Amino acid sequence: MLVAIYHPQTERAALLGDAVEAAGMAAQLLPPHTNDLRPWIDSCFDLLLINPFLDWQEPFDFVRLAVSIVGRRPLIVVSDRDSLDERMVALDAGAADAVGWTDNLPEVVARVAGLLRRSRIAAGQLGEGELRIDLIDRRVERAGRLIRLPLREYDLLTNLARVPDHPVSRDTLLRAVWRIDFDPGTNRVEVHMSRLRAKVDRGFDWPMLHTVKGMGYALRSRPE
After folding, report:
1. Global pTM?
2. Is the predicted pLDDT of residue 35 greater than 70, yes or no?
3. Secondary structure (H, E, C), 150-168
4. Model confidence at 6: pLDDT above 70
5. Where are the extended beta strands (E) located within the chain?
6. Rounded CA separation 35/38 (Å)
7. Do 63 and 35 contact (CB within 8 A), yes or no?
8. Distance of CA 105 to CAs 74, 77, 93, 102, 216, Å?
9. Which of 71, 79, 15, 12 is nearest to 41 (CA)?
10. CA-CA distances (angstroms) from residue 207 to 104, 145, 170, 222?
11. Percent of the chain having pLDDT more than 70?
């Protein structure tokens, strides 16, 4: 499970990341945001953990925007001041959970683990509409038909399926599938996406995999 973490104080972000990894999960520290959160929220994590109260004039709007972008994935808000008012702002804005953090890392991590256990991803299942992905057996089906995929194509599909109906950038896929943080100047993403389309879309009534101009690729959960 990959937990994305945003905290405006670098030291506290690192503490959260270390605690999450000590509990057996992977952590990704997100860089400082701009007015548009999409460039760093639109990545392939399973849960988002944020503190919106230290560098954002309207924390309610920050949380609402984050909720709209993460979709079905869980969002937890951390209040460093352990303020009931701040926790209520987060919950009213749509966060799945809110927790006060005053030297209370074990509870924060326990809430993260609890939400992940209750999610479909933690249960080993992904997929929308006709698509079903068993993350334990690495089995992919569309409309009941078994689809056999090699590793890279399977990883591409699962990363797109984590955020159905939202585009995922080429750079994000390079990081998530190939663990590359730079543009290698090759067309490896395009080649593997072409092969994936041939297996997931060919012979079915409508295409699930789409190129979104200027934004990347998206898995559609239903016909357009």
Report:
1. 0.63
2. no
3. CHHHHHHHHHHHCCCCCCE
4. yes
5. 2-6, 26-29, 47-50, 75-79, 97-100, 125-126, 131-134, 139-142, 145-147, 209-212, 216-219
6. 9
7. no
8. 18, 13, 23, 8, 36
9. 71
10. 47, 15, 19, 9
11. 94
- Partners of 50 in the β-ladder: 6, 77
- Joined together, the tokens standing for residue 43 give 């990545």
Measure the CA dihedral 196/200/205/210, to 10°: -40
Question: 128-184 pLDDT, tens per residue?
Answer: 788 989 887 888 999 889 999 999 999 999 999 988 888 999 988 998 899 887 778
pLDDT band at 212 (very low <50, low <70, confident <90, very high): very high
Residues 6 or more apart whose Cβ sits within 8 Å of residue 82: 100, 101, 102, 104
Residue 40, SS3 per DSSP = helix
Q: Is 48 exposed, middle or buried (0-12, 13-18, 19+ CB in 10 A)?
A: buried
Q: Which two tokens stand for residue 35?
A: 């007015």
